[in-house]
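Incident review: delayed structure delivery

Summary: a single-chain prediction request sat in the queue longer than the usual turnaround. Root cause was a stuck worker, restarted by the on-call engineer. No data loss occurred. The affected request and its eventual output are reproduced below so the record is complete for anyone auditing the incident later.

Affected input:
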Amino acid sequence: MVRFDTWNEKSIANLPDAGVPFGLSLAVTKVTDVGLKELRGLTNLQVLDLARTGVTDWGLKELAGLENLQYLELDGTRVTDTGLKELTGLKSLRSLNISGAQVTDAGLKELARHKCLQRLNLYNCKQVTDAGVKELAGLKNLQWLDLGHTKVTGAGLKELAGLKSLHLIKSQVTDAGLKDLTQLKSLETLFLIGTKVTDAGMKELGGCKNLQTLVLSENSRLTDFGMKELAGLKSLKDLDVGNTELTDAGLKELAGLKALQRLNLTETDVTDAGLKELARLKGLTYLGLYGTQVTDAGLKDVGGLQSLQSLNLGGTRVTDAGLKQLGGLNSLQVLHLRNTNVTNGGVVELGMALPGCRIYHRVK
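Output delivered after worker restart:
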């Protein structure tokens, strides 16, 4: 990737020779529509980053001849539906980021022409609705889609059958909208941070048998009842239920997910009693317990998780005495102990037992 802090007509001389594929980053520069004229004829340009520049719809006309362009970053620009029409000639486009742009459902109709598109970022495109998502149904190669901070409720997502990764962070998605997700047989990654979904919606997610990563943090309506519905996701490797209403009872439901490698329980009501349920999760490499009710007593069970590489105990009630239970975690590489009652002396002692572990500690 060739990076320029400033861009003018002389910059073109510093680009690779014709016929040599390359990428160009002009992100966070003062480049304007006028400056994009210098890109005409660069048929060897495959990656172009114009993020957070002054580029507008008018400037996108200059990109029409970039027939081999595959990756285009336009996040944080003033691009609208009109500008998206100018991109229809980019037949090789595989990845497009227009997060934060002033595009609407009408603009997504224009994007539907890009049949090679595999990755589309519409994060914070606040005018996009379910109607716009339906316009994307013809993108059979689309695998990655971000609809965070949009008006999308989930209706129509079933038409995007090839999706492997779907981001719906702080969108308007509902339990009813999650029904469509069961039709996405290839879906492996799902982000549902800060949405309106409840325990009822978890029943729908239980049908997404190929899920490997599921992020449900900041959903205040999720309780132990919802966790029971996730027990059938046997392929799940990464689960984030931080800042939900999860308790020890819900953790018992999750303990049967034997494939889990990462589990985040931040700011939940999990206690020492719940940690006993984790003994079955022998493959855990990351465990997040920040802000939980865990004490020294619970660290005995944590100490049995021999595969742990990263552990967050920040904001818990653990002390130096509890740290002694962690001395046998020989695979541990990172340990967070900020905002605990652990002393510098306790950290030094544990560090001697685990010389390969980075310990982050700050006295309360």
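Verification: The longest helix spans residues 344-353.
Action items: add queue-age alerting; document worker restart procedure.
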